[in-house]
Structure formats: C-alpha cells, structure tokens
Amino acid sequence: MTIRKVSKKHLEITKIIGATLPLEIHKNVAGVAATEMLNKLGEIDFGFEISIEKRIRAGSGVGSSAASSAGAVFGINELLGRPFSKEELIVFAMEGERESSGSPHADNVAPAILGGFTLVRDNAPIDVIKLPTPKDLYATIIHPELEICTKASRSILKNNVPFTTSIRQGANLAAFVSALYTSDYKLMSRSLLDLIVEPERSALIPKFEQVKDMALLSGALGSGISGSGPSIYAISKGEKIAKEVGKKMGEVYSDVGFKFDLYISPICPNGVKVLATSDK
C-alpha cells in the first residue's frame, strides 16, 4: 500500500492492483477506516491518496480486509506524525471490518497492527493484550482456490454453544496463552483445538480433514481453519518442519487436481510497518 500526502483536501483511492475492488471511499474498507480516523482528527488543510496492491485474496481467510484497513490507518497516521496510538488505530480499522463483514471486530486488525499473537478481551471499549511470540514458531497456510465470504461463513454458525463445550474451549484458550508465555510446545499442541467453529465450517472446505490430518502427521503442533476459511493453517516448531508440513498438505490437493497457494513464514512479532519513504 502506498499513501501520499497531497495538497488537495480529499481522500482518494487512486488505483487497486491485484484484485477487483471498489475505488469508492465509502465502499472500500481502507477508505472507510481512513475516513473514521480523519473524522476523529478534525479539520486539516491537506489530503491523502491511497494506492493498493492486493497480495491477499478476498475471502481467503487470512485477513484480506484487515490488511487494507490496518495499512490505511497506520500509513496515514505515520504521515500525520503519529497523533494516534496503535490501540486507537485498531478502533479505526475495525470500521473497515464492519464494512466487510457487518460487525466491527478486532480479531484480525489487532494482530495486523500490533504483530504476533493478540488476545481481544473486548471490542467495546477495545481491550487488546499483546501476547509473547516464541521465536521458533512458524505458520504454514494453504489456500485452496475458492472464496468463502465472511458473512456467509458466519451465517452457518450456531447461536448457542453447549455449556460443557464452552468450558472446554475456554480451558484450551487459557492453556494456549500459558504455553505462549512458557514456550511449552507440548501444551501448545494439546491446546490448539477449536470445538466451536471448526465443526460447523469445515464442511465448506474441500478435503479439510485430510489436509489437517496430514499436517499433524507431518509434525505440526496444531492445525485448523484460518479465519472464515477456506485457508487452513498449521503451526510448527521450526522452519524445517513447517516446510515438510506444507509439502504434505499440498499433496492432498495436488492428488485430486485442486489448485492452491502455499505460504510458510515465521510469525512476525511487529505488525504493519513502513517499507519505504519518499519526498516525491
């Protein structure tokens, strides 16, 4: 994402590369988030132009809308001299998520802005805790070539969760947080379970169970649905295992002729950042 400070008092998305998305400010999540921030700032005698290069597909389950929302508010905040804290930027970026999914949630924009693992205790008022990120943790993401809309994916979820299931899921979450603080990988592996959402959404993802099973058999600490899907994640200790996990996950789709993208990366602890600056 490239953001320019211009003399004209306006906010404009000048071009989008890599995806067919609206240029209209009120229809694009980056524009919606940026507008929310500028309204909070008040009157200024200049404007901003935003150019977006999308490398994350919409409906992929890896935070495409969050990336645009977070990038827009972060970049403009940098050009303004950082009048807003990162916590305030999260609140502005949440408005982009409202435009995308129908509700202002922080589960994607918070880690995009803060980096690493984040725990969203509450959305209103926002209360986000940044958690430690063990250095040797790697993420493997496989994205089969289909799109799942967040709104549609949410619509299949049940409104009520059984009491015992809620207790077990809460215990898993607490144990996972503990594992991050102590780098207890065995505990982390036992805790990486989704008892609430995954059973409902997994039916939307081709070969989900086979891909997940292959990830675990190949040494991953845990695996599950990334966001709303269809991407499937695996968390591994070390790059070597992460690559082997990715290879085996990919073989499941290759064997049936299903196209996919594969990403392997250490978990970035720092969040969105400035890649380059120019006075032009």
Residue windows where pLDDT falls under 50 for at least 5 positions:
none
Oligomer: single chain
State the distance separating the first and last CA atoms: 16 Å
In CATH, the topology of the largest domain is named Ribosomal Protein S5, domain 2
Strand order of the largest sheet: 7-8-6-9
Q: Find the structural class using helix and strand composition.
A: alpha+beta
Count of discrete domains: 2
Concise synopsis of the structure shown:
This protein is α+β, with helices and mostly antiparallel strands.
Topology:
Layout (H helix, E strand, L loop, with lengths): L1 E5 L4 E7 L11 H13 L5 E7 L10 H16 L6 H16 L7 H6 L2 E7 L2 E6 L5 E8 L5 H6 L7 H20 L2 H7 L6 H4 L6 H10 L4 E4 L6 E6 L1 H16 L5 E7 L14
Parallel strand pairs: 2-3
Antiparallel strand pairs: 1-3, 4-5, 6-8, 6-9, 7-8
Textual characterization of the structure:
One of its GO terms (biological process) is threonine biosynthetic process. Residues 177-254 form the GHMP kinase C-terminal domain. GO terms for molecular function: ATP binding; homoserine kinase activity. Residues 32-116 form the GHMP kinase N-terminal domain. Keywords: Amino-acid biosynthesis, ATP-binding, Kinase, Nucleotide-binding, Threonine biosynthesis, Transferase. The protein is an alpha+beta fold. It folds into two domains: 2-131, 2-Layer Sandwich (Ribosomal Protein S5, domain 2), CATH 3.30.230.10; 137-266, Alpha-Beta Plaits. Helix content is 41%, strand content 20%. The protein has ten helices and nine strands. The chain has helices at 29-41, 64-79, 86-101, 109-114, 150-155, 163-182, 185-191, 198-201, 208-217, 239-254, and strands at 2-6, 11-17, 47-53, 117-123, 126-131, 137-144, 222-225, 232-237, 260-266. The strands form three sheets. A four-stranded antiparallel β-sheet has the order 7-8-6-9. The chain has a three-stranded mixed β-sheet with strand order 1-3-2, with helices on one face. A two-stranded antiparallel ribbon has the order 4-5. The protein is globular, with a radius of gyration of 19 Å.
